[in-house]
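User: Okay, second chain of the day. Same drill as before: sequence in, structure tokens out.
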Amino acid sequence: MRAKMWRLASVSLLLGLPQHLAEDAAEGAGVASAITTTTTTLAHDVLVAQSRGRHLSQLATTEHDFRVGVWLYGQYIDGVPGVDSAVSCAAACQADYHCYHWNFHVVSHRCDLRKRSGGFNEDSVDYISGHSNRYNVTKYGQEHVNPAADADSDEL
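Assistant: Same drill. Structure tokens below.
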């Protein structure tokens, strides 16, 4: 029985046939049509946790500001092309003087840049977010611009 199922799977894989066509071909060849498919997938929470951990450990070796969560609003650039890690997302924000915050989705590897407005949501565990060094928060929680961090900024 196993040999017949293996042959059926081989027909499907080698010929690139959909499963139902492979079954028809196998029946014509005298192979049993019973197919058992076993798929192993990670639960979404496990996938998020593993991916987030990998990106956080890479960020820990840099001087970029970062935390788990997402910066809401202040849309500037959504889906920065060519950026596929949290480290490169943080660097893209730092290099763009209009960017004050960045978001990186740890599963889809999407990098979004944000302007100064908005606020932070720490409940979005599938994102890592951070600030450029142009953004500072005083000890009273009020935002102020760090002019020494970007003397070329036209927003000062």
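The chain has a mean pLDDT of 77.

User: Thanks, on to the next one.
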